[in-house]
Design goal:
Length: about 325
């Protein structure tokens, strides 16, 4: 399969920008859709990238912008939902997938890479996991000889602009003590550069058609261990108190009413399932998982220029 032009939905986000930068080093041209083009003009210097203002939830916009592409990469997701239309789990993880599949069918798009998540399951304990699982199921059901689908299920993704480690770092900088819900929840953080490499690598690979790849790093951590590691990198002595199950749920009930919803009952429910690979798809793709300890210090501990240079070399595949 020859891919000449790709549309990235969610291309202005943390992972989307990394994938766009990887594809910029190929002959593939990139189309990124955004509701706010002016806010994302910083993407324009990326070679071969066109930025268009559009509403991906609008079937007409989707149809119009998929007419000239060979493949779609869907990265659109939310961790917490709002009350407005387009901000609910079903809107983003299920109904949007339906619209994408319909637009692909109507415009003749022949390839879809769909971002799901570890723990995605229509019967999972949280609404996040249930809707991600339903969207994943629909995407795979659409796979056929004329429309190739590949699904990715990453654990939490880390990197310089992540919303995971950076969130804890921000909290640790301003509070002397941190009550930590579900401290024993287990994660297998995966580096954003490895995720982007996986997407780039399978785009034209027939062996990946119809498959699902779990993506994780080389090490499994508890949430408490991760937070303590972030505190260590920040050189901040903080009292980190792991909350028991009942208080963890109570914190979700309280914090979900705080602006920005830093923690919700749905987050608590998601944490009841280990965010760990049964089989790491990076191994199947020949990608050596990058250790958290090899990257996190460069952006959490006030890295110097040499640290950043080494990270850029690694991302470019020049670390050998």
């Amino acid at each position: 399969m020859r891919i000449r032009r790709v549309c990235i939905l969610g291309g202005t986000g943390f992972i989307g920008r990394e994938i766009a930068n990887r594809l910029a080093n190929t002959s593939i041209s990139i189309k990124v859709l955004t509701r706010h083009r002016e806010r994302n003009r910083h993407l324009l210097p990326i070679p071969n990238l066109d930025l268009f203002e559009a509403d991906v939830h609008n079937p007409v916009d989707l149809h119009n912008h998929l007419e000239d592409v060979d493949a779609v990469i869907n990265l659109v997701a939310i961790l917490n939902e709002g009350k407005k239309s387009g901000r609910r789990f079903e809107d983003v993880h299920v109904h949007l997938v339906e619209k994408i599949l319909a637009a692909c069918r109507d415009t003749g798009v022949k390839r879809l890479l769909h971002m799901s998540a570890l723990g995605a399951d229509p019967d999972g304990p949280s609404r996040y996991q249930q809707t991600k699982g339903e969207g994943e199921r629909m995407a795979l059901a659409a796979h056929n000889e004329h429309f190739a689908v590949t699904v990715f299920q990453p654990s939490v993704v880390f990197g310089r602009e992540d919303n995971f480690l950076n969130t804890f770092a921000g909290m640790l900088k301003i509070t002397p003590a941190m009550p930590l819900p579900t401290p024993k929840a287990r994660f297998q953080p995966v580096y954003v550069g490895d995720v982007a490499t996986a997407f780039e690598q399978v785009l034209e690979d027939r062996e990946s058609f119809g498959r699902t790849y779990e993506l994780g790093g080389p090490t499994v951590y508890t949430l408490e261990a991760l937070v303590r590691y972030v505190a260590e990198l920040l050189d901040r002595r903080r009292l980190i108190v792991g909350l028991p199950d009942g208080l963890s749920r109570l914190q979700g009930q309280i914090m979900q009413h705080v602006p920005g919803k830093p923690y919700t009952v749905d987050n608590y429910l998601s944490a009841q399932v280990d965010n760990v690979c049964q089989h790491n798809g990076l191994d199947d793709l020949g990608i050596h998982p990058t250790a958290l300890e090899a990257v996190a210090p460069s952006y959490l501990s006030g890295s110097n220029t040499r640290d950043r240079y080494d990270e850029w070399r690694r991302d470019a595949g020049r670390d050998g």
